[in-house]
Amino acid sequence: MIRIEKYTPARKKEWDAFVRKSLNGTFLFYRDYMEYHSDRFEDGSLMVYRNDRLLTLIPANREKETFHSHGGLSYGSFVVNRKMGASLMIDVFDRLLEYLRGAGVRNVIYKPVPYIFHESPCEYDLYALFRNHFELDRREISTVVPIRGARIGGNRKSGYNYAVRNGLELKEAEDFDEFIRIANERLESKYHVRAVHTPAELALLKSRFPDSIRLYGVYRENRMLGGALVYLIRRAVHAQYLYCNEEGRSYRALDFMIVGLLRDEFGGYERFDFGKSTEEGGAYLNRSLIKTKEEFGGTSICYDTYRLVLT
Q1: DSSP letter, residue 79
Q2: Measured between alpha carbons, how far is residue 238 from residues 176, 181, 262, 270 in Å?
Q3: 104: helix, coil or strand?
Q4: In which band, very low, low, confident or very high, does the pLDDT at 37 lie, cut at 50, 70 and 90?
Q5: 172 in a domain, yes or no?
Q6: What is the pLDDT of residues 143-201, one digit of tens each?
Q7: Which of 54, 163, 209, 297 has its CA 20 to 30 A from that of 133?
Q8: Domain residues for 227?
Q9: In this structure, are 215 and 261 located in the same domain?
Q10: What CA–CA distances, in Å, run from 26 to 47, 126, 197, 261?
Q11: CA dist list (Å): 191 to 184, 231, 251
Q12: pTM for this entry
């Protein structure tokens, strides 16, 4: 009754159409987004059919004996529509694990889509993970601000007002080169890493998804002092990158930018997701970073990763 087929380019239209009408699929699952880094990941995406009708699909990549859902994305769980149910999802997992064993997979890594990006609650997979004895491998904490009625702390309001007095301006931007230069300057000095995306990759993704990816810059006298690259996912705004240079920090550009985005740019959305404040798979919490985010009125959700060793 249930069969699994490996994704091929010939199925792109069918894949994207299912994601578009799903309850938990985001634009990160469209093939034009997933394949921007296809040179770095061996695609292992699967499509699950029942009676020749597409039932669900899973964005994934294969790395030797490991099946990731998906190693190049923030999350990559089974994408479902209203025809899915709890019992049916258990059957899907049974068939998936059987399929993966037959394909020589020894390790399965699964990253559910956080509920804030769901159209409607659909956490069938979390129960199926429990039933199949997946273990929690990583738990990373993120901070989410309710945009309507956000309780912004007095210190952040003071920072916003200080930035206004010093002539800072927030506007939508296209200068990915300067933005990533600022991001890398901060990342290298503080964490000894660089941004995952290059300016060219961000420009490409923005051209493919102009309504879902936006870059905002903070400027003073026409100089970019920082910026925010945001992903618009249903009723949520996710900060993919959020950085300021040293001059921007001296003018409280972060406070100015966040307050401006919450009040002026995204008032019609429900939530602003700051992103993770953890390192080392969640073992280390950056307390000062999460405290800053919480002062904008944020509370916490978790980005989880589960693992199963197949026997």
Answers
A1: B
A2: 18, 21, 12, 11
A3: coil
A4: confident
A5: yes
A6: 999 998 889 999 999 999 999 999 999 999 999 999 999 999 999 998 888 998 999 99
A7: 54
A8: 143-302
A9: yes
A10: 16, 18, 19, 21
A11: 10, 23, 23
A12: 0.94
Question: What's 224's domain CATH number?
Answer: 3.40.630.30
Residue 309 belongs to some domain of the structure: no
Distance (Å, rounded) from C-alpha 183 to C-alpha 187? 6
For all residues of the chain together, what is the average pLDDT? 96
Crossing angle, helix 176-191 and helix 199-208, to 10 degrees? Answer: 130
| 3-state DSSP assignment of residue 55 | strand
How far is residue 108's CA from residue 308's CA, in Å, rounded to a whole number?
A: 5
DSSP for 206-253? HHH-TTTEEEEEEEETTEEEEEEEEEEETTEEEEEEEEE-HHHHHTTH
Question: Dmax of the chain from CA atoms?
Answer: 66
Q: Do 203 and 106 reside in the same domain of the chain?
A: no
* 98 lies in the same domain as 157: no
Domain assignment of residue 250, yes or no = yes
